[in-house]
Design goal:
The chain is of the alpha+beta class and about 180 residues long. The chain has two domains: about 5-40; about 45-180, Alpha-Beta Complex (Nucleoside Triphosphate Pyrophosphohydrolase), CATH 3.90.79.10. It is built from three helices and twelve strands. A hairpin with a 5-residue loop joins strand 2 and strand 3. The longest helix has 13 residues, at about 85-100. The two termini are about 35 Å apart.
C-alpha cells in the first residue's frame, strides 16, 4: 500500500488570536515531493444543533455571513469552549442563540468541514421538545432573527439550495434522517 501521509518539516504561525490561527507548513509528501508553503487554518471545533419543537417546527437563525456577503439560514451553534464537551456546548449554544431549552438532546453525527485547510470538527445534535425558557443572549458580534418553520418547509428549503452552508446542510440531513424524514 502506498504511503500517502505527509511529514511536517517546519511550521510558522502567520496569525494567531482567540478565534483563529493561520500557519504555513513545509511538508514532505509520501513520494518525497516538498510543498512549501501549505497553509492551515486552526480553529476550535464547534457544534450545530437542530432544534425541533413539540409542534414539529425547526428553529433556524437568519444571520449575516461576511465571507459570502449574504444573510443565510443556519442552525444554532458555535465554538466549543476550552474544557467544555461538545454536548455541553450544544446545550449552551441552543439557549444563548434561541432562548430555548430541550426535553432531549442526542448526538447525530460529526464531520470535518474542510480537512484540506482546516483542522477542526463539527459535531451535530438533534434537540427535541424545544421550548422557550429565556431571552436569547447574543454576544456583541451577533445579530440574528429566529425563525420557526415546519419540518417539511425546512426539508424543501434544504433540497432547493436555500440553505447554502455545507455544515448546516450536514446537520440538517443527519437530523432529518434521525427523525425518519428521509426516505431510503
Amino acid at each position: 500500500m502506498t504511503h500517502l501521509d505527509w511529514k511536517v518539516l517546519n511550521s510558522e504561525y502567520l496569525l494567531q488570536n482567540e478565534w483563529i490561527a493561520v500557519r504555513a507548513d513545509t511538508c514532505e509528501m509520501g513520494n518525497g515531493r516538498l510543498i512549501d508553503p501549505y497553509f492551515i487554518v486552526e480553529s476550535r471545533s464547534y457544534v450545530n444543533v437542530v432544534p425541533v419543537t413539540p409542534e414539529g417546527e425547526v428553529l433556524l437563525l437568519r444571520i449575516y455571513r461576511h465571507g459570502l456577503g449574504k444573510t443565510l439560514l443556519e442552525t444554532p451553534g458555535g465554538l466549543i469552549d476550552a474544557g467544555e464537551s461538545a454536548f455541553a456546548s450544544a446545550q449552551r449554544e441552543l439557549l444563548e442563540e434561541t432562548g430555548h431549552t430541550c426535553a432531549a438532546m442526542q448526538p447525530i453525527g460529526s464531520g470535518a468541514p474542510d480537512p484540506a485547510r482546516f483542522d477542526c470538527h463539527a459535531y451535530y445534535f438533534l434537540a427535541t421538545g424545544v421550548v422557550e425558557t429565556a431571552v436569547p443572549d447574543w454576544d456583541e458580534h451577533e445579530e440574528m432573527e429566529l425563525l420557526k418553520l415546519p419540518i417539511a418547509e425546512v426539508k424543501q428549503m434544504l433540497f432547493a439550495g436555500e440553505i447554502v452552508d455545507s455544515v448546516q446542510q450536514s446537520a440538517l440531513f443527519f437530523a432529518l434522517h434521525a427523525l425518519g424524514e428521509l426516505s431510503g
